[in-house]
Amino acid sequence: MPLQQYIKELLYQHECVTVPNFGAFLTRTVNVLIHPETGVFSPPRKEISFNRLLKSNDGILANYIAQKEDMSYEQALRKIEKQVIVWKQRLNTQHLSFSGIGEMRLNPEKSISFSPYGIINFDLNGYGLKSFIRKSLTPPIKKEESKTLPIMENENNDDLMFTPSENENNGSPVLRYAAIGVIAIALVGASYYFGQQYVANEKAKATEMAQKKIKSNVQKATFDLGTLAEVDLSLEASPEIFEEASLDQTYYSVIAGSYRSIENAEKKLASLKSEGFDAAFTEVNPEGLHRVAYGRFSSKREALNLHNYIRYALKEEAWYLEEN
Questions:
Q1: How far apart are CA 61 and CA 216, in angstroms?
Q2: β partners of residue 254
Q3: Straight-line distance from the first to the last Cα atom of the chain, in angstroms, rounded to the nearest whole number
Q4: Which residues contact 25 (CB under 8 A, 6 or more apart)?
Q5: pLDDT digit string, tens, across residues 72-90
Q6: Which end of the chain has the least Cβ crowding within 10 Å, N or C?
Q7: DSSP assignment of 284-304
Q8: What would the pLDDT profile of 256-274 be if each residue is shown by its tens digit?
Q9: Domain end point (choices 159, 191, 219)
């Protein structure tokens, strides 16, 4: 399955999907919008953006590919690296299209410019909802023609006295409709003002929450390290014991360093333990150097998971050792 499809599937679940050594696709939640003038009601949705500065591997994409295609984490990383090389070469001559997500191209400054398609709503809360135009509940105001009453001339030039009828006491229908119109205009103006304030406040809150979650996703690397095997070691053992000890089984270690001096090796071991690693000594190598490991396992898979975490997430130097 193409890498673009995996990215699209992950955008439904995560607010940040990082492609190592390429960039990160980000989602930003947009709440319900009601346009007072047109009456268009827009459901909640997530807008897509791209940040080329976020290139550190967070493990989300590689782990997802490994699960989908039933391969190891290392194989998934190699697949991503090959695809990134193809994407970078294609951007030099043409645009790059991500199905359902957006389009990329290089601008005159040789920087990646991303244009989202906006066709797919990646917000699961708004799945299946479409925009619609709401109908006004206020009936239209009908204008009535004013009636002119003829004035009767009094032959005797007497003062004419008029007695109001019952209908006139109830008020003119035109005045009633005018009062209703004034109230409706006032309500519409108030709802527009407070609606705009509410939308602005909600946008600010959503932006702040999205930025916090994005930083949290980028800073945390998620790896399935499994369960670390417990290894009981005695730090007071002399170097001679390690030299003469024979291994009953094969151990897999992630080496942090090799030291000629046992004192330096013990200092490194204590430093790793203070950082939370289940550090241990391995067997002394043929040159007489004391090896200090981040972890020593009976499972090759656990050792490789720790090795990848230290190399790609922590950016520390480490190498893998199989002790036969």
A1: 16
A2: 295, 320
A3: 39
A4: 7, 11, 16, 17, 18, 19, 48, 49, 50, 101
A5: 998 888 988 988 888 888 8
A6: C
A7: PPTT-PEEEEEEEES-HHHHH
A8: 888 988 899 899 899 888 8
A9: 219
